[in-house]
Design goal:
- With 138 residues, the protein is an all-alpha fold.
- The chain has one domain: Flagellar protein FliS (Four Helix Bundle (Hemerythrin (Met), subunit A), Up-down Bundle), CATH 1.20.120.
- It is built from 5 helices and no strands.
- The longest helix has 37 residues.
- The radius of gyration is 18 Å and the shape is globular.
- The termini are far apart.
- The mean pLDDT is 88.
Length: 138
Amino acid sequence: MPNNLAAARSLYNRDSVLNASPAKLLVMLYDRMLLDLARAETAQLTEDWSTASAQLMHAQEIVGELMNSLRPDTWDGGPGLMAIYTYVLNGMVRANTGRDVTKTRECIHLLEPLRLAWHEAALKVSMHEAALRRDAVG
């Protein structure tokens, strides 16, 4: 039974990602990145270095994806966001190689407001799209 549950959860997660809007995908990436960093922080505090490293490396992969998808020349905030991503990526590497929980916390501190802002923006986009659909039907 546990294997069936795990398979069902995996299928659900895959379908959630495949059917997500671009705004929802961005929110999902931020949520996972902050979860990875929280897990890394907990592992660092207990000196579970292999878990901390794995979590930090996954968070680094997410930042890399965010950097690759960002087009800094398309909006005024783009270069600033790229600079934050670059700084945070370097911080995650230092947190991992130096086993430095303060660097992990700094990354969390810098990324959490962005996560909240993207959540708010995604909600506004979703509400706007719903209003457009409602107007088109009505």
